[in-house]
Amino acid sequence: MDTNQAEKGIAIVTGASSGIGYELAKCAAADGYDLVIAADEPEIEQAAATLRAMGVTVEAVEADLATLDGVDRLVDRAQATNRPVDLLMANAGRGLGEGFLDQDFAEARRVVDTNITGTIYLVQRIGNLMRSQGYGRILFTGSIAGFMPGTYQAVYNATKAFINSFSFALREELQGSGVSVSCLMPGATETRFFERARLMDTAIGQAKKDDAADVAKIGFDAMMDGEGGVVSGWKNKLHAAVANITPASILAEQHRKMAEPCSAAD
């Protein structure tokens, strides 16, 4: 059974208050899916109100998805709809710039807990529901950052390397189950990510970025087509290809030029 069934289930989207997550939710709503959306900020309610104008039902959950309790709250709300989960778009993520030794460790841990721990816990819970029902589609938001050592973004890039790898492993494990797993690997995208990660005083923070709606559409279509992974944009595809054949030491040096604070580089 696939997600083109006569009566669709729901789509869950995390990190949906803005950026790629919000645009993924719009893609699902445009395709006729009722939504359960989540983020760790009150703006999720405003996003829900806008999405409801597209003619779908939207449940908004303000929860800290870096915690197991927050993920449980989201899953409980989804199950309360008494509808199967057709789509899970695990998009919630957090970045952090500056040198690792200069970071507040609580902030660095929060990046790990959001990008990895909360994400894989959510996927395990919803993935088990999907496997039991015999169908479903899961989309991770990874990143081309996962292809290179992240000088001045060391923790973030490492978490995305984990997600990129994990998604393909899980995809293979679920072969024949009716559940597909895809990974969207965007490059720098025009969202609030760089401001929140304190990366505006960097070359990458000041550079032109991809449009979040375009990136989300590429990822949504890849998920619906059952693709394993997709890098959005031809420039990002080129960067990913080059990263695969470039020594890590050189990639780390190149990343320094992109992510080192301008004040430190001067």
Describe the structure.
It is a single chain. By secondary structure, the protein is α/β, with parallel strands linked by helices. It has one domain (10-265): Rossmann fold (3-Layer(aba) Sandwich), CATH 3.40.50. It is 49% helix and 14% strand. The chain contains 11 helices and 7 strands. It has a 7-stranded parallel sheet with strand order 3-2-1-4-5-6-7, sandwiched between helices. Strand 2 (34-39), helix 2 (43-52) and strand 3 form a beta-alpha-beta unit. Helix 1 packs across helix 8 and helix 3 packs parallel to helix 4. Mean pLDDT is 91; it is low at 1-5.
Shape: globular
Q: How much strand? A: 5-15%
User: How do the strands line up in the largest sheet?
Assistant: 3-2-1-4-5-6-7
Average predicted confidence as pLDDT: 91
How is the CATH topology named?
Rossmann fold
Q: What about the largest sheet?
A: 7 strands, parallel
The run of helices and strands is EHEHEHEHEHEHHHEHHH
Number of strands: 7
Helix content: 40-55%
> What would you give as the CATH superfamily?
NAD(P)-binding Rossmann-like Domain
What count of structural domains?
1
- Count every helix, treating DSSP H or I runs of 4 or more residues as helices: 11
Quickly name the level 1 CATH class: Alpha Beta
Keywords: Oxidoreductase
Domain Ketoreductase: 9-191
Protein name: Short-subunit dehydrogenase
InterPro entries: KR_dom, NAD(P)-bd_dom_sf, Sc_DH/Rdtase_CS, SDR_fam
Can I get a quick summary?
The chain is of the alpha/beta class and 266 residues long.
